[in-house]
């Protein structure tokens, strides 16, 4: 039972008796102290994920039912083998669904911190989720809570956690809700808008500064609320474009970029890269039901909006128009090796392109004007091909992606400053067929 003085996370942690921990230790071949330490990291993530899950249209009933089932199955006690393995699988499936593509990174963080193998970390996350459900079910039953009352309590418990514990990479939906068009009343006052058969959600600005205030736990809940509102629309070609209150920025012609970048940002002297400001965060819902957490002026939102909006067409005459700069794709200095953080945006773009199977795009590579022009051209060509192959390797037909290097041509700002040169070293994308 969770008292006023105790948090859901702490009670879940204490619910791991010596018998439960010994059972877990036998399964994983890890020590009890190491497992207890790993659970300290895994339990708050599970609690925060569940707190976000109740924000969906079917969330309160889903968590209420799962909690009651878990408590009824005595998951807080050592179980028979068949029942035990069944709940292990349910816990893993639940966490994979709640965290989406962040699941792997979360498990990796737990594994690294505890010096575990990845399978053990995944098992710990599953155990944390199942135990939290058991405590939730016990609290719900003892206090005779309705699904709505349980949801309110669980959201409050999420607020007791310090900061945002969930990773920031984009999640995938854990449930489909074809009729979902707005978040649960009272959760937030952000803006939902239909775009191209999907939905975008823009959280409210906090403290008068768009996306600049410290992130609080509510953003984790909002993120997961948007996740559970993802829905599958079926065949994209059969759907009309919904134009009311469209959210997104049209692709900006390359020549129109300002010296500081059309999105704004700053020069990072330590890496030599230009760090773009991608605007206020929003949740981009693709027509296939997947979601991405991006910025309003990000590459992803601009590309998706261009593809989804039938009023925006490819300019087949002026081929310098319609280019969209990648704002989070970088290479090692003077090399064609993508940095680790670049793959997230490339994966997002690949997902968008898969949502529009008729589209064809071109990847452009550019350098600054310093050094040998021929070598710059070769470098830009190889970088464009590297980005193209990365996208193709993520499931996009290679025939739908072209690559071209332009070297130091078509610079968007003078090369006289480090900031200007960083802006000119870029990878861009242009839709050449919708």
Automatic annotation (TrEMBL):
UniProt keyword annotation of Protein biosynthesis present: no
A matching Pfam family: DUF937
Keywords of the record: Membrane
Domain of life: Bacteria
PROSITE patterns: OMPA_2
Cellular component aspect of the GO annotation: membrane
Annotated ranges, domain OmpA-like: 318-434
Protein name, entry field: OmpA family protein
Source species of the chain: Hymenobacter metallilatus
